[in-house]
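Technical note accompanying the year-one report. For the benefit of new consortium partners, we illustrate the data format agreed upon in the data management plan: each record pairs a sequence with a structure-token string. No post-processing was applied to the example shown here.
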Amino acid sequence: MEIFDQYEIWWITGAQLLYGGDAVVKVDAHSQEMVEGLNKSGVLPVKVVYKGTANSSKEVSDLMRAANNDPKCAGVITWMHTFSPAKMWIHGLQLLNKPLLHFHTQYNAEIPWNDIDMDFMNLNQSAHGDREFGHICARMRLRRKVVVGHWTDKKVLEKIAVWQRVAVAWADSQDMLILRFGDQMNNVAVTDGDKVEAEQRLGYHVDYCPVSTLMEYHKKVKKEDILKLVNEYFKLYEHKHEMEIPASDEYKAVWDAAHAELTLRAILKDKGAKGFTTNFDDLGTADINDPKFVGFTQIPGLASQRLMAEGYGFGAEGDWKSAALYRSVWVMSEGKACSFLEDYTLNFNGADSTILQAHMLEVCPLIAEERPRLEVHFLGIGIRKAQTARLVFTSRPGNGCTATVVDLGNRFRLIVNDVECVKSKPMPNLPVASALWKPMPDFETGAGAWILAGGTHHSCFSYELNQEYWEDYAEIAGIEMAVIDKDTTIPEFKNTLRWNEVYYMLNKSLC
């Protein structure tokens, strides 16, 4: 994935000069060989760059400062080849503001039983040194991931790969700009929150952008570019042949949808934004019949669907937290099988009870089971009650994970639910994109726990992610995480929320 090529992960090996310069030379050689092996494994999505051995407090501090100041560095892996006295790591670790992974491994896989001697023991002390390093990280209350296992083990490398993807998503969010076209809608609380605290804690910045500014870009879109995009739609998606007739109302709706997409693309690119929100009550001049009308003739649903597929964060009704989170989900998922979704309606059917996930229009085609169909239908909601273009499809069956971030006033809470997407029945009178899922561990527990945790009706879903990704994300961000999975029970979940409340009240610096 192209975005991963923009970043690298630094590897720093802990050592000391107690055993002499020759020992450090061997440590250095082993480290280079290991890093080269990681990069050749084909498992890690981000290149690991070996930054040498750290043998003193000054060397550690210099390396950590350099990591902080290098925009390509998305995180740091540390490994203690020998016994590296942890006091020399204190000042450097105090400086570090990039994600940290402590890799407890060893150069050799097995003990050389017939040849082992004191020289070998003195050189290969990861069992000793990593515990020393782990102690100082624990004493300093550092947030980090610990991975244990041999550096050639694929399962071990897959854990590092998960952390790498999260670290890159975190780095990506530190300069993320979300544009809000319109405000929150209808006094909705759960989609709003503290934007200042979000920037402090999560990195991204949220700006209001007047729809009048958006319309200045709308005026500049060229007809030939609209025509080119309309023809691209017809090539990419299933559709009725009649839709291609220029004189038809459906063609006009598709044309206007393409115009809206090009408008949004232009302003997002010009402003350097990675995500946006819309408000279906604020789409330009209110009266579409006004001779001076300037605005979208329909909700830009098709544009939102396609922009999400390319990695732009999106949140409906001004939901800036979902827009930012979706961008991070897309990065962590490597641009595969993810979408913004909304809990729309319930299907009570005993043990097979499900929740229909949809929205008016804005569901990402990356989760589609089959080739999406381009359709035009009347949409009777919002300021524009009009014929509206959209991609229609259902999601593929399979296991996935959905997540949301809520603002509890004194902290952010990440809520994660494992779900099973199931085959949807035909809905001939509901021509929208949708997913149908069972929340784990069952409908009653999953939905009940989500509500108890204060979860939103919007969430960001992925077939590619699992709890490990979200654990790493919450650890890096320093935010609370509430997990709903196959083992969840309501009494235990309630207790977890209560314990979390006490923890964050006592540790206000973590809120």
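Partners are asked to follow this layout when depositing records. The mean pLDDT is 93.
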